[in-house]
Amino acid sequence: MSRRTTNTKRTLAFLKVAIALQTLSLFFQAATAGALLTSSQGYLLHDVGSKVMYAAAMLYLVAAVLAWRPGGGSPRPVLYATGFLLLASAQVALGVAHVASLHVPLGVVMFTLSTLALVRALSPRLVPRSAAGS
Fold first, then answer.
1. Residue 36 in contact with residue 46, Cβ under 8 Å?
2. In whole angstroms, what is the distance from residue 21 CA to residue 102 CA?
């Protein structure tokens, strides 16, 4: 196995881990949002979780750039990760401003998008018909 192939596999694995971390942090945020209503510790957990979620979104962008540039992969994950970091920035701003009417639905959208990205990253690639028939 060549060094380039090994590096590509590593960067793709890093990308998958970054997306998984982001998705898990968003799930944690949903759980702690519910805890805000029932526990005095809910605010602290949600606040710490927001910082982890934002860091996970930045890590996703770094992993996407590494998979694209040195790894020679598609630039599409970079666009997704950039968009996601923008959504995370809006989410943090809405949370700080206590605009729950937008903060909560955006959180649902972010979790859904992150889950879809994770499923896509973990699913085996489809083999084109022309390649499968040869």
1. yes
2. 24
The amino acid at 127? V
Which amino acid does the sequence have at 105?
Answer: P
DSSP string, 113-130: HHHHHHHHHHSPPPPPHH
pLDDT mean over 48-65: 96
Question: Cα 106–84–26 angle (5° rounding)?
Answer: 55
CA dist list (Å): 1 to 5, 15, 90, 96, 128: 7, 21, 43, 49, 24
Q: Are 52 and 25 in contact (CB under 8 A)?
A: yes
Mean pLDDT of all residues in 68-72: 74
Cα–Cα distance for residue pair 67/73, rounded to 1 Å: 6
Query: Which of 103 and 2 is assigned the larger pLDDT?
Result: 103
Report the pLDDT value the prediction gives residue 74, as an integer from 0 to 100. 79
Task: Find the Cα–Cα–Cα–Cα dihedral 67, 68, 70, 73, rounded to 10°.
Answer: 90
In whole angstroms, give the CA distance from residue 126 to residue 110.
Answer: 26
